[in-house]
Amino acid sequence: MFDRKRAISFLLRRPGTLQSRAARLAVLALTATGAGFLVWSGVIHLILWTDGYKDISVIGPLFLAQGIGTILLGVAIVALRWLALLVIGAVTGVATAVGLLLTVYVGLFNYKESLTVSYATLSLAVEFTAAFVLLVGAVLLALGAPVKATGRPAPVPTTT
Asked: Could you report the per-residue pLDDT of 34-87, keeping only the tens digit for each?
């Protein structure tokens, strides 16, 4: 039977819930690194938007949304460090890279791109790296052993 409370608790899991100090530090490092790559991807898209992509129908607004969205997502990942945000960040990195590849090889919204344009290969590298790093962090966070509950009630303060 589906336990909604447990599912939400799992998705909101943070590195501090891990038993192993090494696992906590690894997840924190991967989280910060992956978020940094997402912010970098956003900055690339904002630069390209100002360099002329803003004038391309549909693609221009998508570049602006991706630029702002990934920067905000990167900040949220660092601030909150929830498992769900790490997964969303990894999916965002892959989706952005796949969007570029679709535009190159198929065309998207009546627009065709080339990998020879400025920032194209850098963008792919940054987005796939963000996705990989965040996915590794998410897997460690999801599979890491949680801190064990002591089973003892919390001490009640007394006045003496």
From this structure: 999 999 999 999 999 999 889 988 889 999 999 999 999 999 999 999 999 999
Residue-wise pLDDT for 100-130, tens only, equals 999 999 988 888 888 888 899 999 999 999 9
- Report the distance separating Cα 6 and Cα 112, nearest Å: 45
pTM score above 0.90: no
Sequence spans of domains, the chain: 38-143
Give the tokens for residue 18: 């891990």
Reading the block at residue 146, the tokens are 């949680």
77 burial (CB, 10 Å; 0-12 / 13-18 / 19+) is buried
Measure the CA–CA gap between 32 and 42, rounded to whole angstroms. Answer: 15
